[in-house]
Amino acid sequence: EGLAFTEEHTMRARMANGVCLTCTRRAGNYFEATVQLRSTGRKLSEDEYTALRATLDKVLEDMADDPMFFITSEGPVTGGYDIVLGSKGLARTWGRHLVKEYGGQVAESNTIAGRKDGVDVTRLTLLYRKPGYDIGDVLRWRDNFWRPASWTKEGAIMSRIDRQERTGASWRDLESANVATQMKDQAVVDLITQDASVGEFLDPSTWQMTSVRLPWDHEKKRQARVTRIEGEWLALHHLGCDDEGGAQS
After folding, report:
1. Interatomic CA distance for residues 23 and 26, integer angstroms
2. CA torsion sign, 47 to 134 to 182 to 209?
3. Of 121 and 164, the one with more pLDDT
4. With a threshold of 0.70, does the pTM exceed it?
5. Crossing angle, helix 46-62 and helix 88-102, to 10 degrees?
6. What is the rounded distance in angstroms from the CA atom of residue 63 to the CA atom of residue 149?
7. What is the DSSP letter of 196?
8. Cα(209)–Cα(198) distance, rounded to whole angstroms?
9. Which residues, at least 6 apart from 43, have a Cβ–Cβ distance to it below 8 Å?
10. Whose CA, among 2, 159, 170, 205, lies 20 to 30 Å from 33?
11. How many CA atoms lie within 13 A of 88 on its CB side?
């Protein structure tokens, strides 16, 4: 007892090449779902599709690791952008995220790809349609100008520009809405002079003094958000999205 002891043994080991199930499926272009990004009302720009696609990376970062959470293929197609995924769960989670962030609607359909152990194997096609407008844009709707203030599960909360009024609208209600100006085309200006109802500012395109009717919620120390519609300047009331930028200065 108390003495150092060393013992050596010799064994024979066999090495064999192998590939895990996930790698096998990736190499074989395995997929369970296809997400189709589309729009309603107008064609989306390349930058808009890039922004939508970037949300998938965020969803993947926030979700727990899963060997089936992989992208099989992706790319532009006629009328939109398609992403082929290895997991139906990932596709549905991303669809819910898109609706929450950008509004719009999701539709699902399933096709039978075969049978395994007596059970049908299905593949999911998830169609996401983004509305042709964003929060803060100006829409012509019901013979007046409105701004979408926030998204709801069934549509949007619409805020009227010329008076203090908000109303909920479904996607069906908004089918008749037309985009008058996008938020990126709006301008934030300093008022040179103002009274209770009218303010004057330098037109950012001509640098000439221009008058505009002030919005119903205008505060004297606040800059004015304006947009040009059919050659006339229109001052916009304040929404929460205005604090996040998205307009020229």
Report:
1. 5
2. negative
3. 164
4. yes
5. 120
6. 29
7. S
8. 13
9. none
10. 170
11. 10
